[in-house]
Amino acid sequence: MRRVLKIGGSLLLRESLAGSIQSWVASQPPAQTIAIVGGGELIDAVRRLDAMFPSPPAWVHWQCVGLLRTTFEWLGRQLDPWQLESTAKDFGRMKRQHDFGNHLVAVDAFYHAESISPLPEDWTTTTDAIAGWLSILTDADELVLLKSCDVDDSLSLDELAQRQIVDAALPNLADRLPPLRLVNFAAEAGR
User: 41, 160, 162, 181: most buried, per Cβ within 10 A?
Assistant: First the structure.
């Protein structure tokens, strides 16, 4: 089993985040866990800059993807003994493995300006859709988005996007995604 896990950037400032993630993953059915981390307040700062000093959407998008390297490295230092997959070569090797290990992947190891993807290069694409794309690239059995809000399981992916619980680009991948699970990690970690 292969699980893609998106760790929401809004969770980055939580006390004991790494320990909570490790405990949560250990409580799940055994799987190869392939995780990415969002940008949180770093991306929020770029969003405010772009509102004041607009730039071409694709340029801003790739600037934000570049900033995800920072959150990857920051969280990666805390997720010992997870394997850090920081290059395209690392990503390719991990993709061929079918272990039950835990892997934190740098987004730019598989998604960059030269890569081919169906994702819009603008604010509609966040790490929600990038994690969805990762789940497609890796033939994952499950996509889990760790959020910091409650989620109504009866809502469709389009409704979740309309309510801004997931990004607007994720529904575009709906017909190719593995089963999706949204977890209020703030509530889960507090138990």
Answer: 160
